[in-house]
Design a protein that fits this description.
alpha/beta, 3-stranded parallel β-sheet, 5 strands, globular
């Protein structure tokens, strides 16, 4: 099953995503996930698909395979030599800018990243 972990302010987003899914799996609201539960969930996943966040680094430390999506953050800053990890990003002329909010207002580093690239990376990692 798919497990969606909501971070602070993401509960409505994960709810909207789940409504569009044929099998939404398990959705854990941010109010229900403390660090102890987060570590337990991450340790039991077959794979984590995440952007470059704290949970991704925790999953790596726990040995969980990870597909990491890099948008405005630089891949070199998030390297961890995890043998069970794949990084996905696209080259844009304005990045990586390392900003939470896109200074140009378009966030192309994320919006132009085709979902199939992430699916292909997850499939490749899963088949290892």
């Amino acid at each position: 099953d798919l497990v969606m972990l909501a971070g602070p302010g993401e509960d409505e987003l994960t709810h909207d995503i789940a409504k569009q899914m044929k099998n939404p799996g398990i959705r854990l609201p941010s109010s229900e996930v403390d660090l102890v539960m987060l570590k337990s969930v991450l340790a039991h996943l077959h794979m984590l698909i995440s952007n470059d966040t704290g949970p991704r680094h925790m999953a790596t430390a726990l040995g969980t395979p990870c597909v990491t999506i890099f948008g405005p953050t630089h891949v070199k800053w998030g390297e961890n030599e995890h043998s069970e990890g794949l990084d996905v990003s696209i080259a844009v002329d304005c990045g990586p800018c390392m900003k939470r909010e896109c200074p140009l207002g378009h966030h192309r580093c994320m919006t132009d990243l085709e979902p199939t690239r992430i699916i292909d990376a997850a499939t490749s990692l899963f088949e290892r």
